[in-house]
């Protein structure tokens, strides 16, 4: 049997056909944070780049063209800006954890991946940082 014929013959399992997700992404968001462990980093802000990806279920039935039917990224941007304006953070790992906690504050988020990079740490590099990913069942 040809591959196309085989695929048209084999229906997808019901669970597989109903589970749909999509990702909301924020790429190369750069802002100045109070971050760092060294004395030279205390009391000043430095540029940090944030990339994130949050996964949410695709609405069933499909969403209308209304903001209320989807996860608005405004809560992510507003939350990151609150973190920026908050207390000094020593580690990029701590900032990444706080951003992940923000992502999971919306119960629709099933998975999130965050990358946080300090941009002035290694002059020969575009950035130095961490990438952390959590799934809903793994959130501490």
From TrEMBL:
EC number: 4.1.2.25
Family: Belongs to the DHNA family.
UniProt xrefs under SUPFAM superfamilies: Tetrahydrobiopterin biosynthesis enzymes-like
Pathway: Cofactor biosynthesis; tetrahydrofolate biosynthesis; 2-amino-4-hydroxy-6-hydroxymethyl-7,8-dihydropteridine diphosphate from 7,8-dihydroneopterin triphosphate: step 3/4
Alphabetically ordered keywords of this record: Folate biosynthesis, Lyase
InterPro entries to which the protein is assigned, alphabetical: Dihydroneopterin_aldolase, FolB_dom, GTP-CH-I_C/QueF
Coiled coil: none
Stored Pfam families: FolB
Catalytic activity: 7,8-dihydroneopterin = 6-hydroxymethyl-7,8-dihydropterin + glycolaldehyde
Domain Dihydroneopterin aldolase/epimerase: start-end pairs: 24-134
SMART domains: FolB (SM00905)
Name by which UniProt lists this protein: dihydroneopterin aldolase
């Amino acid at each position: 049997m040809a591959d196309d014929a085989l695929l048209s013959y084999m229906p997808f399992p019901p669970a597989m056909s109903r589970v749909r997700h999509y990702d909301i992404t924020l790429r190369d968001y750069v802002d100045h944070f109070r971050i760092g462990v060294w004395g030279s980093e205390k009391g000043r802000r430095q540029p940090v780049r944030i990339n994130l990806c949050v996964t949410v279920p695709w609405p069933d039935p499909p969403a209308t063209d209304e903001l209320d039917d989807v996860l608005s990224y405004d809560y992510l941007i507003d939350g990151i800006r609150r973190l920026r304006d908050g207390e000094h953070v020593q580690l990029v790992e701590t900032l990444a954890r706080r951003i992940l906690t923000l992502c999971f504050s919306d119960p629709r988020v099933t998975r999130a991946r965050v990358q946080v990079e300090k941009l002035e740490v290694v002059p020969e590099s575009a950035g130095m940082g961490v990438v952390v990913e959590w799934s809903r069942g793994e959130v501490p």
